[in-house]
Amino acid sequence: MSKRVSRRDFVRGVGAATVGGAIVGGAGGFVVAPATREDTFRSSAGRGGTLRIGGLVPVTGAYSADGQEMRRGQEMAIAEINAGGGVLGSKLELVVADVADIAPEKFINGARKLAQGDRTAALFGGYTSSTQAEFPAIAQIGTPFFHANTLQADVDAVKKAGYTNIFETDPTERWYGPGFLSLAKNWIDSGVWKPKNRTIAVITTTDPYSTSISDSVRKSAKEHGWDISLYEQVTAPLADWGPTLAKIRANPPGLIFHADYITGDLASFTKQFRSSPTPSLLFEQYGPSVPEYLDLTGDAANGVLWSTVIGTIPDERGKAFMKQYREKYGAAAGLSQAGAQYDAVHLWATAVRQVNDPYDFRAVSQAVLGITHRGVSGGYTFVEGEQAARQYPDQTRDAGLGMAHQTYQIQDRKHVLIAPEPYIQGEFQLPPWL
């Protein structure tokens, strides 16, 4: 299987498929029949025409609230780029494929529809499937694919296979567990927080992302002075947390580390926890970044801690983005995927302008690796071979070259960034139930 397929190579096959040729394949890739016409797609995206890009977005299902953030971020970038003259004189148009429950076949079928049927020049999305089953198909197509799935397994798959057109536009999840435990140690050492005990109740799901994060907490707990008192794995989505909370209340830990990332799940847990809280600090993974979380939890969320590596930084650039989002959609933006997708589209557009050809996929992908892009979510530089964005402050000490591992605390129903410097908005406060 070729992993370096240019658009020029690929359009020969797709041209045949659209005028009587055949595409044969399965989950592991496909074979493209030769065409008689060259550069089929180029004719539809000449200068002054329309250039399509694709969104692999969960429009329906449990992830749809985050999917809405993804789509809106993509739309905002497109509107801004088009207002400035487009890309190489062509106006951008977004075409979306619903990946719903993020099953592998949804990504494979969606990617093929967008790249082949809709003739998109790039693919964007917040998630990937848990098995990376779509990666071989996307690599075979050659279309640059930008996702913010925050998963080390995605990076490992790209590195092992040598895929050059698949980019993880954020750092991986491996920073979350040790990073938060280090931050908690600072609060303990400074006397700001005196935990009831040095035990952690870890809640995880069967999802590889959640499992990877919770395992990193389990592995690094000892070196940070903690013991694991409970390791509870559930199947998401889940609304009734009674059995899990019964175990926590029977043996209250100093810290609850919740690695389920589905917004509705975490909102349900928070409200049920607050009905009879234990004297435990509560950390929840990613889900609170979605606006729906505060809508569902209300005041019960006050005191909750959460982190993201794709957060919209609350500096001048980030605040301007948030303001534009509210003006456009009449609602507050989430703090993760909207900004991440906005940045990814701009990053791709910059690479295309350097190459001067949106369909020279190999050149565009190579250009991405050489770009330093400052977006609303921080600085983007990519590790060649891994195709993943660097993290700040652990992977690089230069905030302009990495995406910040941001930790927030919800205070008075507002997300307050409490780490890292130089972006902090406020200080950690003891939750109201402690």
From TrEMBL:
It comes from the Bacteria. It holds the Pfam family Peripla_BP_6. InterPro entries: BCAA_transport (IPR051010), Leu-bd (IPR028081), Peripla_BP_I (IPR028082), TAT_signal (IPR006311). Keywords: Signal. Residues 50-383 form the Leucine-binding protein domain. Belongs to the leucine-binding protein family. This is Amino acid ABC transporter substrate-binding protein.
